[in-house]
Write a structure and sequence with these properties.
This protein is α+β, with helices and mostly antiparallel strands. It has a single domain (38-182), classed as 2-Layer Sandwich (Alpha-Beta Plaits), CATH 3.30.70. Helix content is 32%, strand content 16%. The chain is built from 5 helices and 6 strands, in the order E-H-E-E-H-E-H-H-E-H-E. It has helices at 51-65, 90-108, 126-137, 139-144, 165-176, and strands at 38-43, 70-76, 80-86, 119-122, 150-153, 179-182. The strands form 2 sheets. Strands 2-3-1-4 form a 4-stranded antiparallel beta sheet, with helices on both faces. Strands 5-6 form a two-stranded parallel sheet. Helix 1 (51-65) runs antiparallel to helix 2. The N and C termini lie far apart (77 Å).
Length: 199
């Protein structure tokens, strides 16, 4: 008797449904080299903008460096983190970011807290790299723009790793039309940019 297939196979609407935002699709990542810095960001479903999480991020960055991942800048917001990186290859990028995100998530001791895969954007020109740097270092101000005319430069970003930080703060204050107050000058001893100039 001929078997008639009645179950299984590809069906419209089948499969597990996403539980949160559209997120980052599981497609092949863009190719990175030692001449292509990248902007990375990833989200959490808990508040992370506090001093204990800041210390945890520093430990995660140190661990990621052990895999050869160069970390140039960071910015920590209330539920997400931005990074500017200089990975030599996709393999180092993958192992370094895996180490960083696992160290951070486990340190939070709150179960599965990372919402989705990290988003990666390859910076292919000097102008694109500078724009990404400004976006990362002044991300707090971007979120606060329109809410109030004053914001603070605090220890939740790596701006003081940049030569000429004070001049950049004045420039961005004028551009954002905000009064920027320096609250903390925290140095993180991050890697210095090699493959592109951030001056």
């Amino acid at each position: 008797m001929e078997f008639k297939k009645v179950r299984g196979g590809k069906r419209s609407g089948s499969g597990r449904k996403r539980l949160h935002s559209k997120g980052v699709a599981h497609r092949t990542r863009e190719t990175v080299t030692n001449r292509t810095p990248v902007h990375v960001n990833f989200k959490y479903k808990t508040h992370i903008r506090n001093k204990s999480c800041l210390k945890l991020l520093k430990r995660a960055i140190v661990n990621a460096r052990g895999y050869g991942l160069r970390i140039i800048h960071f910015s920590m917001q209330h539920n997400h983190i931005h990074l500017i990186l200089e990975p030599v290859s996709n393999e180092i990028m993958t192992s370094g970011m895996r180490s960083l995100t696992i160290t951070f998530a486990k340190g939070l001791k709150a179960g599965k807290v990372q919402l989705e895969r990290y988003h990666l954007h390859v910076l292919k020109t000097k102008r694109e790299a500078i724009n990404a740097r400004n976006y990362v270092l002044f991300n707090k101000q971007k979120h606060e723009k329109g809410i109030c005319g004053t914001s603070t430069i605090d220890g939740y970003c790596s701006i003081w790793e940049l030569a000429g930080a004070e001049g950049l703060i004045k420039e961005m204050a004028k551009k954002l039309k905000m009064r920027l107050i320096v609250k903390e000058r925290v140095r993180w001893e991050l890697d210095q940019a090699k493959t592109y100039l951030l001056k």
